[in-house]
Amino acid sequence: MTVLVLGATGATGRLLVQQLLDRNHSVRVIVRSAASLPESLTSHAKVSVITASVLDLSDAELAEHVNECSAVASCLGHNLTLKGLFGRPRRLVTEATRRVCGAVKASGEAQPVKFVLMNTAGNSNRDLEERVSFAQRIVIGLLRWLLPPHVDNEQAADFLRLEVGQNHAAIEWAAVRPDGLTNEEQVTAYELHPSPTRSAIFNAGSTSRVNVAHFMAALISDESLWQAWRGQMPVIYNSPPQAEA
Asked: What number of H helices and E strands is found in the chain?
């Protein structure tokens, strides 16, 4: 299987590439600078590096890059800097999702292509009418006004929910929602839920990036897992440590 990864130079994206390689997949990455990737990835026989900004590629170029890919995974996000938070492109994740999905449609793959989007537990799945407290609604409203990346995450997921939908002939999707990202060395036990089990604002959980990468790679690789979460927005938390007996 060949998988196209967007955002491979990010903290989670590079872990996802490694998780896919561990499963013996071929990986294509679109990155603005190959120097931002570890040498262990750029020199890997199963990694193809495309040096470009995904939004600068033409429709024809994007269609070429998704050609013969069975899945696309996006770990795109905004850097936590003033330029990253407030600079352009303000809709990086949404526009990349929209354009890559358009390229998938144009590529004419015989089987539906899986699109796995890394999102956030702070974004509600409005298909499920998830219950959100009044106080959290106020805070989310402020985030929409103050922090463009939050709106970008919402709109990217909404594109998949509303524009691609549940029964598209060319694209199947899942949006993975971690909460409180942390850095850990190894994959640990984690929990999956259709909706948040705690407030992402007032009682946030934690999810290690390597667990997010592991789950995204598992979704792509394991057909039964994919069928369980296809067209949904699973929330992933680290499992609490087990108390010693």
From this structure: 9, 10
Q: What is the DSSP letter of 178?
A: E
Q: Which stretches within the chain are classed as H helix?
A: 13-22, 39-42, 59-66, 82-86, 92-107, 134-146, 148-158, 209-221, 223-229
User: How far apart are alpha carbons 43 and 199 in whole angstroms?
Assistant: 42
Cβ burial, residue 28 (10 Å; 0-12/13-18/19+): buried
User: What would the DSSP string read from start to end of 46-62?
Assistant: TEEEEES-GGGS-HHHH
- Number of Cβ within 10 Å of residue 143's Cβ equals 17
pTM reported for the whole predicted model: 0.92
Cα(50)–Cα(54) distance, integer angstroms? 9
Does the CA dihedral 119-125-131-134 come out positive or negative?
positive
Taking the C-alpha atoms of residue 128 and residue 123, their distance in angstroms, rounded to an integer, is 12
Cα–Cα distance measured from residue 128 to residue 144, given in angstroms and rounded to the nearest whole number:
21
Pairing of strands 47-51, 235-238: unpaired
> What is the domain class of 2-238 according to CATH?
alpha beta
Measure the N-to-C terminal CA separation of the chain; round to a whole number of Å.
43
The pLDDT tens digits for 62-110 are: 999 999 999 999 999 866 555 555 556 778 999 999 999 999 988 877 7
Question: Which tokens hold the place of 63?
Answer: 């269609």
Residues with Cβ within 8 Å of residue 71, at least 6 apart in sequence: 1, 3, 4, 113, 114, 115, 116, 220
